[in-house]
Specification:
The chain is 40% helix and 15% strand. It has 262 residues and is an alpha/beta fold. An eight-stranded parallel beta barrel has the order 1-2-3-4-5-6-7-8, surrounded by six helices. Helix 1 (21-32) packs parallel to helix 2. It is globular, with a radius of gyration of 17 Å. The structure holds 2-phosphoglycolic acid. 2-phosphoglycolic acid (PGA) binds at residues 13, 174, 179-180, 218-221, 239-243.
């Protein structure tokens, strides 16, 4: 079957950084001026700032071919849900993507595959592209449970998603032990995870999707590791945490994955 050419994906997760509007504006200014921005023809850039700066980012990046995403989203449209942001609000702010099920939300805020599933469905309803984060913890890895964990995260997190919608989702394989640690899996480990993810998702749809979802890698991605964790591992892109605050570094990473477009 002929492979359809799709752009690579570089997601920047700014997490709870940038402490005031001036810092957020400065980030946007520098990002827009990013030297290699114009050269990136085959890589889609998605930046996910804290909620309070969404509008700043959307306004700054308008017409620049840089997408803005939220770091989380609730599953209800509106109502008495203190502290939450709905997919409709995100969409109406000009947001196009939503990170869902990040391991920090799972570990610190008790999110589960089931809540991720509700969020993915709600995001899709509003035409937001879910970036669904999965991956095993160190403990699970040591116990040889990586495959089981990934299988459950996919089966439960993507339960009830239509064949058409599965193509819109971005799956981010982020081994929890590699996040914020400067450790990264070996090329063959990431390749194995990719094959497993595709196998499980294709298995969920008896009539196979043509392309399947985009599958990206996240966890200590840097200029040094990008080639290994994305290009050599055959991934469709990367999700960058810390290095997305270093705009020069982020563009270097995007440049590395751009070159590999297949
Ligand atoms: P990191 O974070 O790049 O700082 O390891 C990645 C993530 O949390 O998605």
């Amino acid at each position: 079957m002929k492979k359809i050419l799709r752009k690579k994906i570089a997601v920047g997760n700014l997490k709870m950084k940038l402490l005031n509007k001036a810092e957020a504006e400065k980030y946007c200014e520098l990002f827009k001026k990013g030297k290699s921005l114009a050269k990136l023809k085959n890589t889609e850039l998605i930046i996910c700032p804290p909620f309070v700066y969404l509008q700043n980012f959307v306004d700054n990046f308008k017409g620049k071919n840089i997408f803005v995403g939220v770091q989380d989203v609730f599953w209800e449209k509106e109502g008495p849900f203190t502290g939450e942001i709905s997919p409709v609000m995100a969409k109406n702010s000009g947001v196009t993507h939503a990170i869902i099920g990040h391991s920090e939300r799972r570990r610190i805020f008790g999110e589960t595959n089931e809540t991720a599933n509700l969020k993915i469905k709600a995001a899709l309803k509003e035409n937001l592209i879910p970036i669904y984060c999965i991956g095993e913890t160190e403990k699970e890895r040591m116990a040889g449970e990586t495959k089981l964990v990934i299988s459950n995260q996919l089966a439960e997190g993507l339960s009830g998603i239509s064949r058409l919608n599965i193509e819109k989702i971005i799956v981010a394989y982020e081994p929890v032990w590699a996040i914020g640690t400067d450790r990264a899996p070996a090329v063959n480990e990431i390749m194995e995870a990719r094959i497993l993810i595709r196998k499980i998702i294709f298995g969920m749809f008896p009539a196979k999707p043509i392309n399947g979802p985009m599958i990206i890698y996240g966890g200590s991605v840097s200029e040094k590791t990008a080639k290994k964790v994305c290009v050599e591992s055959g991934m469709d892109g990367i999700l960058v945490g810390r290095e997305s605050l270093n705009i020069h570094g982020f563009f270097e990473i995007a440049g590395i994955i751009e070159k590999d477009n297949h």
